[in-house]
Inverse folding.
């Protein structure tokens, strides 16, 4: 049995590249707040008997907390079998308005609609101006909601996420250390045939223009066991006795998804944030994924700098030169890799729909394997 008080990947002894900020979390980027609603209802036999059963949730990310804001944003898809709403306007305008939410595939609609109402009720969007006059009732916005599919463990077709869950995640949003593993939108997710979920990490980035913080949060529901590697060690092939059990129809191996959210206080423009997102596959690939056609691998980055960038008139902004971006690219790949590992190291074994069972990553066995390959601490 895995012990309940697990250590994060770095704390367990993994030697990982880069220097994390204080909490090694996306919330190390000043102003960023994260909240969860975790919905665990019923026992596996309840689903078969038609009684409520859920292993799912909602994650909320507020780029500047509860302060009305629009942030520069960019995005990239490695593989598009998934959803991230509001992206047409992000592509055209370069701005993301409001919270960024993550949930399961079938709950995108209720999350989007509830966030829309929340933004109206909390005056959390920029008002419309016409001939210099402010018209609050005519403001428009496109909530950003991503998803991954948790149907192996959750009764996803039961549509158990409701408005109360969405508001719970928004109200739970805070700075400081955040939970990982089976929490929020990551509650019912599977990664490399181990229990996956929510993970986070950060990096302190030094450039000639100054020092910045970059943070990552992932909802990891991707990958297959044979390709899983840590530090080049084929952990997925070497670990034995920790196989998942699937009693219901299972999608083809690799049919999963990962949502990656990058936050930084570096003053980046939308095209630069998009280029950050294009480095995410490096971090995913270091652990042995990114090859699967049916995976939805969708990434978004935003900058908390240039607080007054969104305007209906004119503004001055600060820009980091493109030739200073290399350390941020490296930090992105590093933090993505560590965020996925943190999700795996934090997650607990789970039994779900039809008695489907997914084991937690066995920390002690993993560290023993890595030690045999000279990858453990000196």
């Amino acid at each position: 049995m895995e012990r309940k008080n697990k250590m994060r990947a770095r704390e367990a002894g993994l030697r990982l590249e880069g220097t994390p900020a204080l909490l090694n979390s996306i919330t190390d980027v000043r102003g960023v707040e994260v909240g969860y609603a975790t919905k665990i209802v019923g026992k596996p036999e309840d689903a078969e008997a038609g009684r409520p059963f859920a292993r799912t949730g909602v994650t909320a990310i507020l780029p500047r907390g509860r302060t009305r804001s629009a942030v520069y944003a960019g995005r990239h898809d490695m593989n598009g079998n998934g959803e991230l709403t509001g992206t047409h306007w992000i592509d055209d305008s370069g701005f993301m308005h409001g919270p960024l939410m993550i949930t399961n595939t079938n709950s995108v609609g209720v999350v989007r609609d509830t966030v829309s109402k929340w933004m109206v009720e909390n005056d959390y969007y920029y008002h419309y101006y016409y001939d210099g006059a402010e018209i609050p009732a005519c403001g428009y916005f496109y909530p950003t909601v991503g998803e991954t599919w948790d149907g192996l463990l959750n009764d996803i077709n039961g549509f158990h996420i409701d408005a109360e869950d969405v508001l719970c995640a928004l109200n739970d949003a805070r700075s400081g250390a955040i939970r990982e593993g089976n929490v929020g939108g990551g509650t019912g997710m599977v990664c490399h045939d181990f229990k996956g979920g929510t993970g986070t990490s950060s990096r302190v980035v030094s450039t000639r223009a100054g020092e910045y913080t970059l943070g990552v949060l992932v909802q990891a529901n991707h990958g297959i066991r044979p390709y899983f590697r840590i530090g080049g060690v084929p952990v997925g092939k070497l670990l034995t006795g920790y196989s998942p059990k699937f009693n219901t129809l299972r999608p083809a191996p690799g049919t999963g998804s990962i949502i990656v959210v990058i936050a930084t206080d570096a003053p980046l423009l939308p095209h630069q944030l998009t280029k950050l997102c294009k480095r995410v596959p490096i971090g995913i690939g270091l652990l042995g994924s990114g090859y699967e056609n049916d995976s939805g691998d969708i990434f978004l980055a935003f900058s908390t700098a240039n607080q007054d960038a969104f305007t209906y008139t004119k503004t001055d902004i600060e820009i980091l030169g493109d030739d200073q971006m290399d350390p941020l690219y490296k930090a992105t790949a590093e933090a993505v890799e560590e965020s996925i590992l943190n999700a795996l190291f934090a997650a607990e074994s789970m039994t779900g729909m039809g008695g489907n069972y997914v084991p937690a990553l066995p920390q002690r066995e993993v560290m023993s394997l890595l030690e045999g390959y000279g990858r453990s601490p000196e």
Summary: Residues 13-372 form a domain with the L-amino peptidase D-ALA esterase/amidase fold (CATH 3.60.70.12). The mean pLDDT is 93.
